[in-house]
Amino acid sequence: MHHRTHKNENPYSCDVCGKGFSQKGNLDRHYRIHTDEKPFSCDVCGKGFSQKSNLNEHFRIHTNEKPFSCDVCGKGFSQRGNLDRHYRIHTDEKPFSCDICAKGFSQRYNLDRHFRIHTNAKPFSCDVCHKDFSQKSNLNEHFRILQMKSPFLVMYAIRIFLRRVI
Question: Which residues form the C2H2-type domain (predicted)?
Answer without folding.
Answer: 12-39, 40-67, 68-95, 96-123, 124-151
